[in-house]
Write a structure and sequence with these properties.
Cytochrome p450, alpha+beta, three-stranded antiparallel beta sheet, 51% helix
Length: 378
């Protein structure tokens, strides 16, 4: 099965139909060692949620990272007690109320982008709408100058594709920006973070850099793919598309269902601290584990009709934003952006449909699930 992943990971059809391979793994090898990726992979809902929540057994602190290395001190790569102290500082400046307060600006940006789309009969939804909206929102929250936004999209894509150069370039940029904000504070999240205290602790320079990077990455990639994947999912299910358009009050549950059905992030990494048994496999300490969120969210034992998009699915305990202490801090922002963006898109373009003559082009990396382009007729 290693070769299956290897052979198909260069094939666009594999990425478009990743769920077929994941279903096969759940059936035939739910806990599996990949010699190619040198890691254990888990595929079933119960196992994935266990790996994500049992931080004493499955560490987020990946062993190859050193304290002074970029990404080593982020919320995503630390365990308690470090993780709690970081999170408590960040939560002071990134509250639910502050996220909700962004709604008018997100709405304004949404209509600006839709206004530009109205000049065309056909657009690539990814590049004209789903990508710029979250990039601009996150850039404004962090206080990043307008002229630097394109660099961010490039770095963000590079990091997802595993580029060390992109990590270094982005980290260096934030180091410089942080120095400027320390001398000249502004009304933005970076200035708030510099000033924030938690139990007498301040964020170190590396922690600040890492938080800015993780917020930009997560807030950018996840929301872009959530918006795109919603239109893609509705294209796959014309009946559900009609139901949603006739009743936009279903949008919040439809978004949750898309998060489950086409999860923007496919897997998360953990690292075994002790010898641990999952299923009938014993995993030694010091091993990398990939917890496949996309697979857990299609698990037949957890979700009825798991391979169908059902826009009013209740309950829907998907793991798209993770699980346990590392549950995504930016989930409320992603949901808010998606709700505003999709409601406006569907209202402004009631006849919007995917151009069925154009082949779907998936993002060709295992870590995120979405489309590079999505041509729509307006």
């Amino acid at each position: 099965m290693n070769s299956v992943l290897h052979l198909q990971a260069s094939d666009s059809q594999f990425f478009l139909n990743l769920d077929h391979w994941l279903a096969q793994m759940r059936r035939e090898a739910p806990v599996f060692y990949s010699t190619e990726h040198q890691c254990w992979m888990v595929f079933r809902y119960d196992d994935v949620s266990r790996v994500l929540s049992e931080w004493k057994n499955f560490s987020s602190q990946l062993p190859q990272l050193h304290e002074r290395e970029d990404f080593s001190q982020s919320l995503a790569t630390t365990d308690p007690p470090k993780h709690q102290s970081l999170r408590s500082i960040v939560q002071k400046v990134f509250t639910t109320n502050q996220v909700e307060a962004l709604a008018p600006r997100i709405t304004e940006l949404t209509y600006e982008l839709l206004g530009q789309m109205k000049q065309h009969k056909q657009v690539d939804l990814v590049n004209t709408f789903a990508t710029p909206l979250p990039v601009i929102v996150i850039a404004e929250i962090l206080g990043i100058p307008v002229e630097d936004r394109e660099d961010f999209k490039r770095w963000s894509d590079g990091i997802i594709a595993g580029s060390q150069t992109a990590i270094k370039d982005m980290a260096d940029y934030f180091r410089q920006l942080l120095k400027e904000r320390q001398q000249h504070p502004s009304k933005d999240l970076i200035s708030d973070l510099i000033a924030a205290y938690a139990e007498g602790e301040k964020l170190t320079a590396q922690e600040l850099v890492d938080f800015c990077m993780i917020l930009l990455l997560a807030g950018n990639e996840t929301t872009t793919n959530l918006i795109t994947n919603t239109i893609w999912s509705l294209h796959e299910y014309p009946d559900e598309n009609r139901r949603l358009r006739n009743d936009l009050s279903l949008l919040p549950t439809a978004i949750e269902e898309v998060l489950r059905y086409h999860s923007p992030i496919t897997y998360l990494q953990r690292y075994t601290k002790v010898e641990t048994q999952i299923g009938d496999q014993i995993i030694p300490p010091g091993k990398l584990v990939w917890a496949w969120i996309s697979s857990a969210n299609r698990d037949e034992l957890q979700f009825e009709n798991s391979d169908r998009l059902i826009i009013d699915r209740e309950p829907n305990k998907h793991l798209a934003f993770g699980y346990g202490i590392h549950f995504c801090l930016g989930a409320p922002l992603a949901r808010l952006e998606a709700k505003i963006a999709l409601k406006a898109l569907l209202e402004e373009f009631p006849n919007l449909q995917v151009d069925a003559t154009q082949p779907l082009k998936p993002i060709s990396t295992l870590l995120v699930h979405g489309l590079e382009t999505l041509n729509v007729l307006l």
